[in-house]
Q: What sequence folds into this?
């Protein structure tokens, strides 16, 4: 007796044909080259082959490129990784082997890679979703986000990006840090308003407070 497939089950992409492996190799060589223009062309070739969803090796190499020096190209790499992590609009998803290799490789990210991803959000907040999809694939990203958020030596724009990411991902362990930081920023802001000769307000730090509050609200909503 035949077994019916689930009506709403996901389909996976087809494996990359062996005849395309040479094209993939050439594109990968370009991707790791010294010139941004050539690296960009290499990525374009890989995407045209849908190799980021059909080749575990390509997915792993892309995951190792989240620290790409050129931030525009870094963003395109992150978008490609996000596409490989989730089904497309038709419900088709990357090969199981691709997603397995991808999560393994992204799971090795630490603070440096997390910072590089947050730089994308700081420059283009509209790309919060793909960045968070990549961050969410790493179990260590939550701790790195908290460290960056709490570090006063980090640029405020990056700390704001960290707060946004924590709220979007729903990293509940960050709540105590968010509460302490929010209270400290609120006290500082209140003190500056009360003191006639207070120092010039730090507008960057003031901009961080509402994002911390938003993140706390997002975490609260996620536990309801």
A:
């Amino acid at each position: 007796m035949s077994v019916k497939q689930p009506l709403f089950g996901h389909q996976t992409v087809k494996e990359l044909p062996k005849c395309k492996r040479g094209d993939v190799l050439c594109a990968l060589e370009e991707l790791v080259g010294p010139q941004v223009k050539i690296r960009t062309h290499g990525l374009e070739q890989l995407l045209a082959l849908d190799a980021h969803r059909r080749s575990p090796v390509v997915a792993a190499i892309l995951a190792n490129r989240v620290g790409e020096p050129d931030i525009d190209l870094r963003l395109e790499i992150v978008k490609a990784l996000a596409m490989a992590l989730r089904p497309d609009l038709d419900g088709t998803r990357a090969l199981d082997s691709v997603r397995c290799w991808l999560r393994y490789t992204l799971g090795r990210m630490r603070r440096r890679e997390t910072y590089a991803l947050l730089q994308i959000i700081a420059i283009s907040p509209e790309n919060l979703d793909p960045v968070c999809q990549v961050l969410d694939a790493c179990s260590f990203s939550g701790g790195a986000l908290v460290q960056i958020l709490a570090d006063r030596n980090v640029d405020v724009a990056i700390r704001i990006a960290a707060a946004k990411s924590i709220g979007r991902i729903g990293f509940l362990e960050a709540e105590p840090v968010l509460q302490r930081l929010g209270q400290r920023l609120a006290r500082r802001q209140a003190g500056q308003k009360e003191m006639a000769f207070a120092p010039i307000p730090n507008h960057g730090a003031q901009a961080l407070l509402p994002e911390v509050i938003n993140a706390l609200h997002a975490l609260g909503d996620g536990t309801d």
Summary: The chain has a mean pLDDT of 90.
